[in-house]
């Protein structure tokens, strides 16, 4: 390590409080100081390169410093930086809204903007609640979610989630959500397909909706993959059953595609695989290609119309964020959508997904791997102490952290969640880079499962 790197590291620790981090870890764990980045590669101040195998927290899809996206932002900066979106508008936000509506199911016709994923969730739950209120359904005050779900960190969004690590401490502050067991196919019986399991698990949802629909505003789900819950996956069948049930019981469906949207699961949006349209679609992360903070909530004409009234009714949606619909964010998002339009991204990803599948075959029979699962450009390897019983490694042993350390020393940035090692790289990764990545992960896993703990 050069003196420049170590000085920067010291300055960082003197003032910066990092997200989702026990800062004391950094007494022994060096911070990765990134000087620059291009494509899938990050570079530190000593010239070492690291493959960004997790798309910088799932946001980057077309690589770092992508020419088209960077240029679009820089062109936008010559024209208009940011202006409030109340009473004002601009061409980038109009074009982006038109294009988002264009690629969505036909019923989603209205775009509301915020500046991060959690805020999009806040918007969706407030809008749903407020919709019912404007329609005279004041008993509807509750939300239904799935176990092991994740929808962000602000208090409303945190209330919608169920991952104990993030939620438990704040429990006294949270909304009273009804949690239904997830259709996560990790828990299916031997010989039972993901679809059969989804159908079986849906009975819990059906029962809750039957009993509580009079007081429920909406059901909120992460379509197909519960990412922060450890990349747990489930059959699209669950989504089609859920859509039918929400219609039957008069309850909204909120699809949180913040992590899975924009091609991640093999289709542009995960909901497409079930052929359904939600009442609210939340987007963020890859919306701007991973360049700028921005989020959008798409909803339907009936929802929009429930707020459209004389001012004196006080039915308007009075929610706002300072950076709502930032022109710079819109420019980045438009450039991102242009890449989808002009390059056959979804098809190209299919080939990369197949390469991942082939490369990850090697883990299937490993005595410490409970499951290798994949949904499009997400691959997860779940490590356990014992394959047959699926007994987990004690969490205090932090085996995933050992994989992280090894990978970082060997040019790969992974960030296992507990004992789940996963790959979720930018779509510009090459087959050779996939092989390198899987090789490094394999050696890291080998070391981590054999260590004394
Ligand atoms: C990341 C994420 C969020 C929260 O987005 P932030 O921008 O981090 O607030 C919400 N839902 C899902 C499914 C996510 O993966």
CATH homologous superfamily annotation of the largest domain: Type I PLP-dependent aspartate aminotransferase-like (Major domain)
Which term fits the overall shape?
Answer: globular
> How many structural domains can be distinguished in the coordinates?
2
Strand order of the largest sheet: 4-12-11-10-7-5-6
Q: Could you list the spans in which at least 5 consecutive residues all have pLDDT below 50?
A: none
The biggest beta sheet reads: 7 strands, mixed
Q: How much of the polypeptide forms β-strand, as a percent range?
A: 15-25%
Task: Report how far the terminal alpha carbons are from each other.
Answer: 27 Å
Helix content: 25-40%
Mean of residue pLDDT values = 97
Number of helical stretches of at least 4 residues = 14
The CATH architecture designation of the largest domain is 3-Layer(aba) Sandwich
* Backbone CA Rg: 22 Å
What's the CATH class label of the largest domain? Alpha Beta
Strand and helix order: HEEEHHHEHEHHEHEEEHEEEHHHEEHEEH
Ligand list: pyridoxal-5'-phosphate
CATH third-tier fold name of the largest domain:
Aspartate Aminotransferase, domain 2
Beta-strand segment tally? 16
Which structural category fits the helices and strands? alpha/beta
